[in-house]
Amino acid sequence: MNRPKLILILLAIFSSGLGFYGVWRLKPFTGEFPFWVQALQQNLSSITNFTPRSWPMGAPLIWTEQWEAAVDQLAPWVLAYQAPAPRHLGRLRFYQEDPARGEGRPQEKKGKMGAAYELKDIVSFSWHLEGTALPAEEASAGRGFLGAPFILVMTIAQKSHVPQTIRISLPNLNGMRDVDGRWVGDPKFAHLHDSGRTGAQEGLQTYASEVWQALQKFNQEQFDRLEMVSEENHLVLCQQVDDQCQVIGRSTCDQCRYGYFPVVGRKFCPHTGTYACGPNHCGEAYWPACWRGFVASGQEAIDYCVDGSLAGYCHAGLQAICRDGLLYCW
Amino acid sequence: MMLYHGRRIQQQDAVLQQAAELLGRLWRGENRGIDYQGQTVCATTTKAYNPDYFQCLFSQWPYLKVGREIQVRVLPMQRGPDGKNLFYALHTKANTAMNFAPHYHFVLSYGRQREVLLEAPRDTYLPPRIYALGPQGKKSDLRLNKDWKFDNFGLHLFIDRRLVSNRDIKHWLDFSRDGFTPEMAALAQEFSSWPTTPQGLRDAWWDLPASHLTPQLMQAYCAFWGGSVLTTLWFDGGSFHPGDYAAPRPRYILRKKYPWPQEQREIGCAQIFSAECRGQTYSVYHQSAVSWIGLLQTLGGVPELLQAPSGKWEVKASSYWLSRNSPDHALGKRWPYEEKQDQGVGFRCMHYE
To answer: Where residue B248 falls among pLDDT bands split at 50, 70, 90?
Structure first.
């Protein structure tokens, strides 16, 4: 074989992407995936409202609505996720809610809710929001710049396919809110930046590099300096909300040595709340009441922090008492 | 040159993707067709989800073969308690700033590229709904609204899918630098006396539920991971099938006896690991009585300890001490916990994010 022919053959092999590595066991993408991404990009690029509906995890075998996005008052687009379970792979569905019916249901037939874009055989899925939504105190000090575009980042792995990361820019989404003349970060976006979770079955998952970097944050020295630990008669609150469900100051709950747990306050806040550092001794004497919930207790209240409130419960022999806007057990 | 460099990165990425898939299969115990050294030396019955097995394998030869020739390197991550290099990193709330802590991760390296693989979260999310405590009772009770209801709207609650294993406790003790309490020291002593194979591997005991801890030690373990021992409220929420998933605020909270949505033709060991099943392989991974959100062994298996709203500890009645036909194989049925009881009790953790 002469040299030019050999070079041509080698070039052909390299440019075909096969290389010398044998079988491509993981395919880059399948036919439906680019169309699914295209549908998302087309329908999300002009949205002005974005509301997270569920913690980005999903539950196996049931549909959980992850977020809804809308252009002004038009019918919102919803992404629903059915996490994988043993012997079942997950699914993703992107659809527009039917305003005539008031609510879209992903498990119903396509005809009833108009166009729905579905992706099957999902092994793992995660999403988060990138952007420079400023924490409250930086915004009020006038530093930095406001309104930098959010980017919706989704990482999807289908069976036998290479995991794909999609980035959709949301230039019309405003992450700041004007509260009494101060620009503050919208709290509904507060927890959406470091979501590394995927609703996958047991196994090993490849993770995005920003998650990997976040994992590297701590070393033993830093941990040994973590003093945020609650004790009897000394509760450490790592996140507090006011009566408008705005986080006061900055949340430091990731600095809690033993995790954190919710504390019942005055108001029901659907996206956030007051949290205390662990260890969790809720229900015991001089500790906060354990969470029972604002809805199920059946009492509609302007203020849930009252003595005897049903929004929390205490261990036998103790009563729920309101102190400093939080429910304790006495 | 630029084109070649870009293509090279792409090819390295592709190799790493394949290596990641192989490592994932090995992790799940599916090792057919995977070529690696050390498999006979590291013989063990518990290959799946076992970082000690990986440690043995990669201590022999820290590479994974992709295709015929390519060796992808598995990087050493941290020093173990005996000073040797570990091929996995154990994450704890202690060394992870994130809201959740996957327990183990591995790093593969090929050329200049690296791939990080984390153990998939071992917990599952409880969707926001209204729930009710305990068995359903009479239909008239439902209509009279006698249920003790609770909800998790506004919360993000996660429950461990499986019970805590002996291996989990061992690693907690090995890597716990909080300082041992006398109880923890006694437990560590007990664990160290368990017989080992020449390579330092353990046998199936390590995958059994840790069933001889006191409630205080259980809470200490769960707190280390940022949570607490599961309460009866959220156990019931995660195990009773909710019926209509799409209605999170139903008027009546239906609570059927079994976690599965439809009647089963027969109830065997795959449904409830009862006394008749005790000759079979059992571990924390045994997929029986899986609930609607993926909790394993909500019935059968080792008795499980839960904390009731009264603050008292209760034990799930259904276990492998009862025959298949026992009426106590029913969700929501619990007995008071007695500290000196002979039968060990297992546990699992829950946490908030």
So the answer is: confident
